[in-house]
Amino acid sequence: MNDISEKQTPTEACGSLALALGSAPSLPTNYEELPIPMRRVVREEYVRRQGGLCSHCNAPLAGEPSASVQKLRINERLFPPNFFKWPVHLHHSHDTGMTIGAVHCRCNAALWQYHGE
Predict the structure, then answer these.
(1) What is the enclosing helix (H) or strand (E) of 104?
(2) CA nearest to 108, candidates 49, 48, 46
(3) In this structure, are residues 39 and 102 in contact, taking their beta carbons and an 8 Å threshold?
(4) Does position 58 have pLDDT exceeding 90, yes or no?
(5) Per-residue DSSP letters for 44-73?
(6) Is the pTM higher than 0.85?
(7) Long-range contacts of residues 64-73, Cβ cutoff 8 Å, at least 24 apart
(8) Is 82 or 14 the better-scoring residue by pLDDT?
(9) Measured distance CA(90)–CA(40) in Å, rounded
């Protein structure tokens, strides 16, 4: 589906718009300025550019994070509800707002809890 139709979700429409314009999203981009549906498009572009690997642990995003990340103790109470519901996250700098890459949910939690990212 390359044209934008009323039956598309906002995410599909954003993805279709990018395809119609013949370009992928420009990366990095400011996470805080992205409409929520566009965040998925940007995350998927990072996954594509990263060859399906996590930008933090380099393990395939379709699977579990690396053993070193899995053994870290994560305090789930530090994170918002549903944070762990989504397996792949769009990592971004909390200082600049700029996107960094696609990461496993657990890697994103470890980056924030242990490194303040």
Answers:
(1) strand 99-104
(2) 46
(3) no
(4) yes
(5) HHHHHHTTTB-TTT-SBTTSPPPHHHHTS-
(6) no
(7) 64/104, 65/104, 65/106, 65/107, 69/104, 69/106, 69/107, 69/110, 70/106, 72/106, 72/110, 72/114
(8) 82
(9) 8
**Residue of 93, 84, 90 lying closest to 54 (CA atoms):** 90
Residue 4 has pLDDT above 70, yes or no: no
**Nearest-CA neighbor of 109 among 46, 95, 89?**
89
Query: Residue 10 and residue 87: Cα distance in Å, rounded?
Result: 21
pLDDT over threshold 70, residue 2 = no
Predicted pLDDT at 25 = 84
Work out the average pLDDT over 90-95.
94
pLDDT reported for residue 22 = 52
CA Rg value for the chain: 15
Residue 88, H or E segment: strand 88-92
74 in helix, strand or coil? coil
Question: Measuring CA to CA, which residue among 42, 44, 40, 4 is closest to residue 21?
Answer: 4
